[in-house]
Amino acid sequence: MSDAEQPTAADVRAAADAVKAALDRHLEAVERRAEAEADGGADHDTAVFAAFDALAAAGEAYDELLYEAYDEVTPFEIPGGDTMPDYTGPEEPRALTVFVRRDYVVNEPQRLLAQAQRVTDLDPESAVDTDGFDGSSAGHSVHAALGVLFGEFEPDEIATRHKEFGLEEGDATLWVAAADDPGEPGEWLAAPFDQADPERVICRFDVSTVFDDEDVELDLDRGVEDGSDNTSGTSY
Length: 236
Fold this sequence. Notes:
alpha+beta, 3 domains
């Protein structure tokens, strides 16, 4: 932005006032929903999500003007809005496909190697299919050690015990998608994620440090709300 287009102090003040007003409207919507739920009344979720979206927009506008005018930012980070298209799958799915991705960092290689060597000491055949490595190499090669451990343990067990294996959790995501029919045995194994159609996702759960240890519940038709841990869940 050029100097001629710099926001004025009045612009920044007006944006700050808009944030305050949006905060009040969001709180009022949340309070009305709580009262309605206590009385068994109508669903006020739509008003809460709309107020959240308005608050997010006001906060973003204020943050931008504050930076342009004073080279300062706010300490608040509001999660983004809709990130996936509307659901277009069947109302009553006949089959489901679950897509899972978990990322890890090998932050303690020696622990990883020791665990893999322990497995191969107890079961030498566990290293047979690790790209030609023999059992003794599991304790000396990270490549071989990973093959041994992921061949020996189920992914869910590794996710639960990752610290024991010298791994640090990164981002993770799980999508539950509608399918027309169950897949034929072996038909999708060569390219398991080719069928990950965002428009057929029924629900989605993300884990990431980007959420700053807050639970973010997303709904494409209704917006975003804050929760309590570092998991983001999307329902359709």
